[in-house]
Amino acid sequence: MSEAARAPQRLDADRLLDDPRTRIIVCCGSGGVGKTTTAAALGLRAAERGRHVVVLTVDPARRLAQSMDLSSLDNTPRPVPLPEEATAAGGTLHAMMLDMKRTFDEIVEGHADPDRAGQILANPFYQSLSSSFAGTQEYMAMEKLGQLRRTEQWDLIVVDTPPSRSALDFLDAPQRLSRFLDGRLIKLLTAPTRVGGRAYLRVVNAGFGMITGIVTKVLGAQVLRDVQTFVSAFDTMFGGFRERAEDTYRLLQTPGTAFLVIATPEPDALREASYFVERLSEDRMPLAGLILNRVHRSPAARLSAARSLAAAEALLPGAGTAENAHSGETDGNGSGAGHGGGNGSGNGAPGEAARYPLAVAALRLHAERMQLIAAERRLAQRFTAAHPGVPVARVIAQPDDVHDLAGLRVIGESLSHD
Amino acid sequence: MLVRARDTDWEGVRLHVVTGKGGTGKTTVAAALALALAASGGRVLLMEVEGRQGIAQLFDCAPLPYGERKVAVAPGTSMAPGGDVYALAADPESALIEYLEMFYNLRHAGRTLSRLGIVDFTTTIAPGLRDVLLTGKAAEATRRRAKGRRIYDAVVMDAPPTGRISRFLNVATEVSGLAKVGPIRGHADTVQSVIRSPETAVHFVTVLEEMPVQETLDGIAELRGLDRGGLQLGAVMVNMVRPTALTDDQLAAAARGDLDRHELAMGLKAAGLENGGGGNVADGLAAELAEHARQVLSQRERRGLLTATGQPCYDLPLITDGVDLAGLYRLAAALREQGAA
């Protein structure tokens, strides 16, 4: 297969950011691939190109928040102060960090009368659900996204998805939460307090007593009472929850949304990216492309790993003349030469220093870098072979972490110029 | 009878909890630690709790069921043949059914509950319950005995990531919000007494990059700050360490951007690369050296922060060609050499 046949279509990030029809960009991918930073870099670039942007992030590293000059990220979009030249195109940038408990509380307060809301907020089960359920964060991120969208205050929302155990949680969690709140067990546990419970009582007549019995036995009667109180207070909101989850899910399927899958050129991250691409297409979610983050390059790419290693070998004691580097002896085991180190072939005395230690180190370092680049390229090709229709953009690995807007800008530029 | 021929840093520790930020190689290091602990004979259980089947992928075997099975034999030493590593992929549903069976003789009821969504119940509404079931399983395996002897000489748990570890281990407090009295509360308190005993240590896996190091420092501070104390901090395991070929002087010069360009150019010439590399090879290599040097220096700074925590730090070399059993053996050997096992 020729290289050309495998080359992926290039993801044109600027076109995506400039298109006024793009209203939501969702950045997803496994943990540690730079989702949050990429989302912030995209937001900044879009703002500098004239859009009114809000970046919704879930759990930014402290320094990233600082890079946007945001000391308090508190569930409300805060303006990010941009230098003058960045606002020339008339754009603005806001950023906010999701507070899932506060978002959940607000939904409760907005959908129940004050008495009932108070009851729910004070319930131990509600407190556990709203502050630590693994799906709540995903659900609330979606809820917040829907809210921001409805305000029509921004023409582009960039969302960074929560650091889930699996990237797919993000699509599943809202449904899981609403399914749970509407679940059979909950109905069973609360059957006596609900009119609708009767049908269930008939079905599992004998089972019902047993189940409440076990729950009482294992968890204690107080826990069962708490659940029952919680569910009956929450009852009126069940329908609303499911509806909202479904609304947001549909919003994601509209053409105004663009999903960007972020991955580093590493096996695990790209495997997750593949799953995600497949899942998005199954769910008919609009995938804009893959961002391959932290791709390595070399300023001396024309010197191959094998030649570089052979050259380093030639400088070692006892290696004789440079011509040896090109003899058959070293050609065959180029990749092993790097580990051969000081006790390579020949008759150099052990411990004798290489003649040009700096050049030897530089050549070995370069060989390692070229091997890394080759490995990354193979992984990227494998991804494209499996998903030929997915456009790809690359972000070159930066030597330092991002600490300020300038750092975010560099990433945005790298992304757009590939 | 197992005779320990050497001192290690974790004498008396039976339950090793291994945490770390995503992407740092937590599962790999946990597996290497299990092999290292088993190397002087005996039997070690390696347990995962997040349903990722990471152990099966690592040892290249079929997905693990909820059951303990042997996955590897540790490399032997001159003193003794290698012991066995068993693996278990624990999930809350099976742990709950087992719990009901062990304590209430309620196996069938457990299955009924499972069909009716008790799993949703425990894992969704009350994450504290889910965690107490998983940590409870680890505590049970650690203390399990047959004929007066422990079944496992050590248990290594591939635990949730750093961001969630203190909540995960702080089970009794988490559950107490939900259940103030009752059997599950009692169970949580028992589990807590194992987790907070000198038999348990919590190790952090990190790489020398900014965010993982920061999370490690935060995680250590958080565990130290947990009320009632008693959680024993373990080691900091620095993963994917690459040695540098440069001397300190060369590193400093390269980072400043004024290394000896003449020496470099002469060296390349001597190696026959005068023009052969195309373009300006010396400039390119110098730039790579400078980047490398800056990286090494900031990694040293970060290592200093980790050392300052006062916890033992172990180095694990970068395995470049994919981690397989041979790679795990290498990591296990590195851990043993440094006194981790």
Notes on the protein architecture:
The complex is a heterodimer of chains A (418) and B (341). Chain A is built from 20 helices and eight strands. Chain A folds into two domains: 3-170 and 248-296 and 397-417, P-loop containing nucleotide triphosphate hydrolases (Rossmann fold, 3-Layer(aba) Sandwich), CATH 3.40.50; 305-376, no CATH class. Chain A has 418 residues and is of the alpha/beta class. Chain B has 341 residues and is an alpha/beta fold. Chain B folds into two domains: 15-242 and 318-337, P-loop containing nucleotide triphosphate hydrolases (Rossmann fold, 3-Layer(aba) Sandwich); 248-295, no CATH class. In chain B, 49% of the residues lie in helices and 16% in strands. In chain B, the strands form two sheets. Chain B has an eight-stranded mixed β-sheet with strand order 3-4-2-7-1-8-9-10, with helices on both faces. In chain B, strands 5-6 form a two-stranded antiparallel sheet. In chain B, strand 5 and strand 6 (149-150) form a beta hairpin. Chain B is elongated, with a radius of gyration of 24 Å. Chains A and B meet through helix 7, helix 9, helix 10, helix 12 and helix 13 of A and helix 4, helix 5, helix 6, helix 9 and helix 10 of B.
Keywords:
heterodimer, A: 418 residues, alpha/beta, Rossmann fold, eight-stranded mixed beta sheet, 20 helices, elongated, B: 341 residues, 2 domains, two-stranded antiparallel sheet, 49% helix, 16% strand
Summarize the structure.
Chain A has 2 domains: 3-170 and 248-296 and 397-417, Rossmann fold (3-Layer(aba) Sandwich); 305-376, no CATH class.
Rounded mean pLDDT of chain B is 87
Instruction: Give the low-pLDDT segments of chain A.
Output: 193-205, 321-351
CATH topology of the largest domain in chain A: Rossmann fold
CATH first level of the largest domain in chain A: Alpha Beta
CATH superfamily of the largest domain in chain B: P-loop containing nucleotide triphosphate hydrolases
